[in-house]
Amino acid sequence: xxxxRRGWGWGIGLGAVALGLLAWAxxxxxxxxxxxxxxxxxxxxxxDEEARTRVRDRYVVSAPLSGRLARIALRxxxxxxxxxxxxxxxxxxxxxxxxxxxxxxxxxxxxxxAMVSRARTRIAxxxxxxxxxxxxxxxxxxxxxxxxxxxxxxxxDRLALRAAERELDSAEEDQHVAxxxxxxxxxxxxxxxxxxxxxxxxxxxxxVSGRVLxxxxxxxxxxxxxxxxxxxxxxxxxxxxxxxxTTDALKTPPGTxxxxxxxxxxxxxxxxxxxxxxAAFTKVSALGVEEQRVRVLIDLLDPPARRGALGDGxxxxxxxxxxxxxxxxxxxxxxxxxxxxxxxxxxxxxSERMAVFVLRDGRARLAAVDVGGRNGREAWILEGLSPGDxxxxxxxxxxxxxxxxxxxxxxxx
Length: 413
Fold this sequence. Notes:
By secondary structure, the chain is α+β, with helices and mostly antiparallel strands. The protein folds into four domains: 31-43 and 327-412, conserved putative lor/sdh protein from methanococcus maripaludis s2 fold; 46-54 and 236-324, Efflux pump adaptor protein, beta barrel domain (Elongation Factor Tu (Ef-tu), domain 3, Beta Barrel), CATH 2.40.30; 60-85 and 205-233, CATH 2.40.50.100; 94-194. The chain is built from five helices and 22 strands. The strands form four sheets. Strands 2-11-15-13-12-16 form a six-stranded antiparallel barrel. A four-stranded antiparallel beta sheet has the order 3-10-8-5, with no helix packed on it. Strands 7-6-4-9 form a four-stranded antiparallel beta sheet, with helices on one face. Helix 2 packs antiparallel against helix 3 (151-193).
């Protein structure tokens, strides 16, 4: 069969089309990737940890003598004022008082008297601290007007004055408590010496104003000397206790700003680190790893009305702000990875070089960047990118420099 010239032309054309289709079918496709734009905004690096609240000063009312306790009518959450009767005891004493019991009660009176004296000394010392803090604040305010003292120093002076005033309030409350304990000790000694002189019940009074936190012994019954009966504290004066890793605690000195989150109300609460305890302790994590942790005490700065029903021993989340910058360039932290070339030169301090893949002209381009800080969501970029640059987030092993890529559409996810 003779093939005409026209037939040859059709055959060559069909073959070319087939080859083109095969080439198109097996040609590499652009890899779909997640992209995000570098933007300018606020950057924060923080230390997040679980914590709990606690009343700053907790007072335990205990039985000053052995006897029969009448049923306590108070319940957890009830408000009490200083001096209110919170429990009554009917002394259960033998007709004869042995020498050892009398000596113990007399020693209790002497101890309570010494506590009163020590409380007076503490008040005097606290008043001197308050006066010293006020003088320092006045002097620094005068120097600040001539710009010899920074605003940060003035803030520290105001915090020192506030802490000294809190210490004075605490010392005065301790004197009040010590006075009540002295009265109770003297009454116990008097009741022991003269069991028939006062057959009425012995009353226990609240040492401070606040709320009942816990009733240990609510039912009527015999109790021994020193048995805890109930706890009293002021819910308006609370703090937050966080147990941080020792390496993290070094980054949160007193004065560090803290946000209290996941406390059950709307919006975070403001806090400030007051003290980092000097002694650490060993704690076993949920994975069985021994960790060295230290307690960090945080003051709540919001008024009690803002905290709502937040009480003693509640679980909260704390976020200590260790680094904060305004109007800096940030990208998702998943876009940053170690540079394939390894560590940097000596001019960079020998730190590890970082890199990102930038989407340019439909291809992934490797770009070295300097990172100023990272948190769980963002990375602060010092150099290497410009606002609006699109970077690849979580690039896989298949992404290399020069690879054709395309932003992933919603249908690809």
